[in-house]
Amino acid sequence: MKMRSQRGAARISAIWMIVVVVLFFAALGYAYIANEDKVKAESERGTAVAAADAMEVERDAAREDLLTITKPLGFYDRVTLGKTSDAAQAAEGLAQLRATFPDLGEDIEDFERAIPVLVSSYSTQLSKISTLDQRITDLEAEVNTAKAATTDVASTKDVEIEKVQQALADALNTSRDEKAALETTVQERTDSRNQVDGELRTERGVTDTLRRETELAAQASQTRFANLTKQLEFMKEREKPDGAILSVSKQLGLSWINRGSGDRITRGMRFLVTSGNPAAPREKGEIEVVNVKAAMSEVRVTMLRDQFDPIVAGDLISNPLYDPEAKRNAVLVGRFSGIYNEAELKVLLADIGITVQDKVDLDTTYLIVGSELYVDADGEPVEEAIQPSETAAYKDAAQIGANVVSINDIQHFFRK
Questions:
Q1: Is the pTM of this model over 0.85?
Q2: Average pLDDT over every residue of 174-197
Q3: Which H or E run contains 61?
């Protein structure tokens, strides 16, 4: 029993020895591997350090290059050392150059291309300045020459001034003598004018007396003429009517007359309507032309004297200036304004067959009277307005018996 126990113990010791040896060699293997990794890591570290050193050298070289460019370019902080140019400030500076120098176009994007253009522009400006400087020098020479000439002229001027002053003194003495003579003449003329004024006032008094007597006699004559006219009115032949009412439409409120464009009818003309009985005519109202056809015209009633005596077919119409057939002449006297000025009045009269004359003669049919005049026959302004009845044309028309028609009648019977 004891012998087996010893062999077992020897076997255990041998196993432990083998284990120890195996562990030893394993440790040696791990140590070798770890050493290889260390050597590799140290090699890689050396390579990295060398690369970092190379990059640092390159960075320093690039920084030196930037500093070398910064110094001539500018746009850097001169207080802090090592600062490089600011790209934004450089771009802003280039934009300011473009705004200042028109020769720099938008296609010039850097200072390298801008500098030749600036040098050329500067050289051009220097040339212009040089030309201007030369011009200034020439002008200064001309000014000096002119000053010298002015000095000579001033000397001559002083001599001439002395002569003129002497002549002026002589003229003043002569004018004083002439003034005294003129004052004497003026006084004599004034006395004479006062005497004439007195005589004129006397004559005016006589003239005013004669004029008043003449006016009174004229008024008396006019009164007598009016009375005679009224007494003989029954003997006058009644004026022939200018047309008649063709038909009347009560439903439409319209009427038609037997005169049209062929009878010189124009739109806006007005007619007085009388009853169709020529033995006992009576005024029934007024009508106005609203539409013109060739042989008839449409009219509307503008005034009815008696609603129980309406306008009917067969009633007669008349207008103081209208005549469908006769050729008539008229003369204008006075001032025309308002609805019809003189030019428009002449057109209206021509449309209804009336020729406007320059002066009254035996062929004058109408004298058309406007407002008062403020200028005389020569077109000169007058202090007091001239009434048309005071004109020679009015008096001539009265002598030949021409019909006198006021502008108010025309404005009433001829609407625009």
A1: no
A2: 81
A3: helix 2-73
